[in-house]
Sequence to fold (398 residues):
Amino acid sequence: MTLETTVSFAGIAASEDRFQLATYRKMPIVAERGSGVWLFTSNGDKYLDLYGGHAVAGTGHCHPHVVRAIHEQADKLLFYSNLVYSETRARAAEKLVSIAPPDLTKAFFCNSGTEANENAMRMARMYTGRESVITFSGGFHGRTADAISATFLGKYREIGKPNVPGHVEAEFGNIESVSALADDTIAAIMLEPIQSMAGVRMAEPSFYRELRQLCDERGIVLIYDEVQTGVGRTGNWFFAGSSASDGVVPDIITLAKALGSGVPVGACLVTEEVAARIKENDLGTTFGGGMLAMAAVTATLEAVANDNMLKNVNAVEAYLRARLNEIEQVVRVRGLGFLLGIEFAENAATIHKALLEHKIITGTSSDPRVIRLLPPLCLKMSEIDLLVETLGQIVSHG
Ligand SMILES: Cc1ncc(COP(=O)(O)O)c(C=O)c1O
Fold:
């Protein structure tokens, strides 16, 4: 059977399975269209998407402002590289820098989270003249060679073998473990400020402050991998500079996921000091800074601001926490803003599956007791009610 003869779930699934590598375990649905927090499938079902299209749909699915900007740009020019100037790129960089913590004054655009992290580490090496990088157990930074070598989580480093040399592992939240490794070979300390895949783990605000001090004392570049936490997800534009970070701003922030609302784009936000050491041809990528992606970036940031999504995240997070408190089986709610982990006493795989059967999409994590929520930033309280009521029914039926 081919796609030409069928559009049924079974036909589409069989075709994908036949012609693509089986690298992801898929949900048994065919995504057809989306609107805000809702995903509509080919057989007419409607799912509440609390996983936000893999943390990408920050503005919600198909936000009209973003869609319009992409359409308009597509009519004008799809792409030209950094070999030419572009008003669309100028606007995106200016807008992104305008919402960044004041010390981060320069942007470098690429195409994904892993690429942003590779470039951030490379900039740190160029800036310091050193080679090694400290990252943390439980952190995830991507799947290309350097980023996967920086990923001390589960099997990832193993599948990335041979690893890039010079990556060392410290314990998240434990400053002594970092201090013991932070000698004059270390170019950068890189961390997910909230470790998402590890089960949504945060450190005390003082940990980020101590990391900043250590980096300042020892001439090390501090990198926040904000691929998940950036672009409003925590209720601030960035984790950097927020009270959860004790106001700490790193030397480089890396971004991707929600930055283009679904158009692939990554970025590094960099201090003037680090940027000054980066010369022509030191970094590059054909597609980085392309017009379609840049139009999506500007429109995404505008949509978040115009719709007061940061305020919404803060208000709805508080409501979600309060309502989840009503469910006895919820041990605690971890995380910040709309990067939340609902922790149960036992393995939550059956709850995750049952939620999907009730047409609510959530995420798992490497901690089997934790269900992850990464919803669009426009999620409303009424949709929280749907989640909590459904979850209540599921857990009360065992
Ligand atoms: C924190 C973090 N960093 C980096 C990456 C890699 O991003 P990408 O898949 O766009 O390469 C991810 C992806 O899940 C991520 O969650």
